[in-house]
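pasting for the record
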Amino acid sequence: MTTVIYPGTFDPITNGHLDIITRSAVLFPNVIVAVASSPSKKPLFELAQRVELIGQSVAHLANVRVIGFTDLLANVIQQFDVKAIIRGVRTTADFEYELQLAHLNRVLTGGVESLFLPPTEQWAYVSSTIVREVYLHGGDVAKFVPPPVLEALLKRAKK
């Protein structure tokens, strides 16, 4: 059975990410959402909490598994016998960056391909960075994130 992986920092996961995951779950029998530690990005949420929030957000998708990782993505790909990497691409700038990563990952994994999915129009402008900025400036992010993430952001704001 084909396994694909959707890697990212997901800090936080957005409805745009959830859309890519849902569409991937329709196309492939096994989808791994691989949450990168990414300490250099200084995430809002720790790795374990991001994994938990994503798990809650995709609980309705039986063929989706969520893992956290601190290793090189190529090693995770080999560990789980992944056949393709799923990446969401919103803009030409995203595409240029993702194309470089696709080439690198193909070399590092001995040929694993990257598949680019454009977002649905509804989520084409949403990114974790934008959500964090709106949140950090006191804006309402309810339209952009799944309910478990909104709840976690609201709890975080009260601290």
